[in-house]
């Protein structure tokens, strides 16, 4: 092979490598651009968080409603009204009676959980107390609002809902519906 042919061959190889490198750089650039536009903006805090403003543990904070099935719902004991039922739940938590507290939860919250799991979850919050702020019964529906005060995360408003079916109160749902500092 002549020197001229060898030089042409090397130039072609270098040009080919430059083209491949440029294509790879373009592909990487497009991927990076797509990923950066798909990510949400970071949550930038202007001031550092105080302990009261820290993010609550998993499971605490806003919670979505869960499907209610009267056939498997938790039934209140005979003669116990919704407000008393809710009070018994929080008092059981305060006394570390996790079986008692767990038994008062809506059926959907019990599925796949246990009294030990409830203990672990509630213990993370540093609960300082509770206060029933509202209890209403309107026909076959009832709601009880409870402020649950935590040491680090502020006050969480819990809404308990109940439905009366065939003369028996059933626990429909328990949801964290608000948060205050």
If you average the pLDDT, what whole number results? 81
- SSE arrangement, N to C: HEHHHHEEEE
The rounded distance between the terminal residues' Cα atoms is 83 Å
Report the strand count: 5
* Class derived from helix and strand content: alpha+beta
Helix content: 25-40%
Instruction: Tally the helices.
Output: 5
Poorly predicted segments: 37-64
Which geometry do the CA atoms define? rod-shaped
Gyration radius, to the nearest Å? 30 Å
Strand count, sense and barrel status of the largest sheet are: 5 strands, antiparallel
Strand order of the largest sheet: 1-5-4-3-2
Strand content: 25-35%
Care to describe what's here?
The protein is an alpha+beta fold and 181 residues long. It contains five helices and five strands. A five-stranded antiparallel sheet has the order 1-5-4-3-2. A hairpin with a 2-residue loop joins strand 4 (155-165) and strand 5 (168-180). The longest helix has 36 residues, at 3-38. It is rod-shaped. It starts with a helix and ends with a strand.
Write a brief caption for the model.
This protein has helices at 3-38, 82-94, 98-103, 107-110, 115-123; strands at residues 74-75, 127-138, 141-150, 155-165, 168-180. By secondary structure, it is α+β, with helices and mostly antiparallel strands. Strands 1-5-4-3-2 form a 5-stranded antiparallel beta sheet.
């Amino acid at each position: 092979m002549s020197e001229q042919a060898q030089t042409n061959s090397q130039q072609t190889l270098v040009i080919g490598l430059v083209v491949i490198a440029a294509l790879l750089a373009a592909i990487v650039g497009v991927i990076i651009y797509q990923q950066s536009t798909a990510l949400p903006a970071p949550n930038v805090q202007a001031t550092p968080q105080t302990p009261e403003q820290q993010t609550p543990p998993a499971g605490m904070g806003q919670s979505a409603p869960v499907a209610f099935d009267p056939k498997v719902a938790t039934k209140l004991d005979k003669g116990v009204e919704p407000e008393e039922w809710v009070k018994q739940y929080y008092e059981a938590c305060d006394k570390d009676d996790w079986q008692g507290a767990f038994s008062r939860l809506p059926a959907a919250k019990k599925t796949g959980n246990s009294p030990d799991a409830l203990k672990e979850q509630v213990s993370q919050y540093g609960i300082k107390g509770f206060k029933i702020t509202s209890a209403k019964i309107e026909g076959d529906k009832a709601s009880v609002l409870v402020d649950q005060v935590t040491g680090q995360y502020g006050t969480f408003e819990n809404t308990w809902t109940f439905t009366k079916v065939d003369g028996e109160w059933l626990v429909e749902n328990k949801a964290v519906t608000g948060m205050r500092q």
